[in-house]
Design goal:
alpha+beta; globular
Amino acid sequence: MSRPAGARRLGIALTLVGTLTAGCGSDGGTGATSTPAGTSARPAPTTLAKASGKASTSKGTAPPTTSTLGPFPPVLRTSPAGVDAGAIHSLADLPAAFQCPAKPAPITLPAASGSPAAVVCQSKLAAGEALYLWYVDSPDARYLALTAALAKAKYVRGGATWVAGGTLDAGMGQVGGDVYK
């Protein structure tokens, strides 16, 4: 008897998270240093911004195309983003902006060996697929997030303040944004 699609997605996500956290931190490689979503080395805002559910518009500035670390990969195409980029001010804001439920709880992956910290959660915008999410606040942070996303995920999208990676759906639901892979 096969498991329902949601259970398979969660299983795949948890397997990926376990694989990614192996070797992180000073715990001998067990990955036990992962912290719950909303906690990080950076101070988090006292409240999470609520996702408005409205698609972002082109009122903001376009993301840069290069950083001091190197050029970004080419954008293959762009589609309207279902993510409210104005609600994202830190890593802790990503689960709300991507409409991730409280259960299963989002998982924060600590920064490790050149890869920035990320959050993995089941996004309602991606039809329940578990996505890797990175917060970007500078061209260098975007470069590092894109590099990590391209290495870990099959499909990669980006917006003004975020990079998302998924493994199941090439369309990534209603996430939208710049398509890198």
